[in-house]
Amino acid sequence: MFLITAPADGVAEPNRDRPCQYTLFVWEICLRQAIWFCQLVAPALRHPEGRPGRPTKIGDIMTDPTSDSGEIETDFEVGQDNIDGTLGPLGFDIHNPVFVISGLTAVAFVLLTLIFPEQAGAIFLAVRNFATTKLDWLFMIIVNIFVVFCIVLIFLPMSKVRLGGKDAVPEYSYPAWFAMLFAAGMGIGLLFFGVLEPVYHMNVSGPLGVASPIAEDGSIIAENVEAARSMGLAATFYHWGLHGWAVYAIMALALALFTYNKGLPFSIRSCFYPILGDRVWGWPGHIIDILAVFATLFGLATSLGLGAQQANAGFNFAFGLEISTNAQVIIILLVTAVALVSVWRGLDGGVKILSEVNMIVAILFFLFVLFVGPTLVGLDGFWTGLVAYTQEIIPLSNPFGREDDAYRESWTAFYWAWWISWAPFVGMFIARVSRGRTVREFIICVLLIPSLII
């Protein structure tokens, strides 16, 4: 969402000096709320008199009630807290506490940010600095645990469990499934940071204390080039590879198991049923879902704002379009319109098609860069980065005893917080499209396929 600049200490940080960026942030929140609202009301719009076949009991949404998957017994009724009806030509079906509280809080947040942009900027910066400088070790340990847990799951007997019961079959082919995995988990940030990071880490940030090949007078230090190049690629692979996707995999797997195999609602709160029991249907569960809404709202707004700025800069370079807040707001509106149409058309008619088109375009773009550009250099860079990643993954994952505090806090901790904020949204989508896969198949594909594509 924010422009990336290099301050005096050599570590890229968000640039919050321009008030227009807060205006963009507010637009992003408003439009993300619109998409979320449409996701809630779209079923009612298509069926104003109620969704056909809507289940009323938890047991009714069990995908295979006759299987031995161990359905959880509870008297909770799906939709018992919902408010549904029609408003003119429109229909709605919303969860009362979660929608009302998160919606009103988001509106209040937007208004206060518009009215007090300077104070809001100071608060955002203070919160970000606290999270990345004081909690960096916690983020890194948590994500490391996720990776180890995913790897262990592959070899446990439960890896043979099928999401949806033993007779469940996959809803989507492998190509369609892979396309949706990639499209759900990767945003505009990959296009921006995927190019920026290797160069920046090589020349400026110095992961693990690797010396920069650029001297203070601008000359090249030849003996530092190879080590800095390898470390720059390794750090980039680390931020976009297994660790981030492990966050998504854990969230998606927990949600899929409790929904498809245990018969609980398709909601983040269901993952906490073993801890909270039936209390997840009360305020503890409401709070969990509200926090998931906020994480999704602000996490996605970051990518949407960054994408608008990047697209505006590209149009400026190619066509001379002025870089301005108005232009970026128009870009956000266009992207949001496409997202709304996708939501309206449903999963098969919208998201699946967009994901497949996205994958085709990505492959064509990759082939263009590979063969039109320096082919051997590109292949060598991939291999060098992969080897360096396997060699440096443990040192890069270690939060203790390092001398690169500025890099670890400004990059790694920020990234893991960003990935975690995306987890409720991406995890729910991955769970939704993964019914019929075994746990082993799910973990291997969610971890490896997107990481290799990236």
Automatic annotation (TrEMBL):
GO terms for molecular function: transmembrane transporter activity. InterPro entries: BCCT_transptr (IPR000060). Its main location: membrane. It is found in: Cell membrane. The keyword Cell membrane applies. It holds the Pfam family BCCT. The chain crosses the membrane at residues 98-117, 137-156, 176-196, 240-260, 281-307, 327-347, 359-379, 413-431. This is BCCT transporter. It comes from marine sediment metagenome. The lineage of its organism: unclassified sequences, metagenomes, ecological metagenomes.
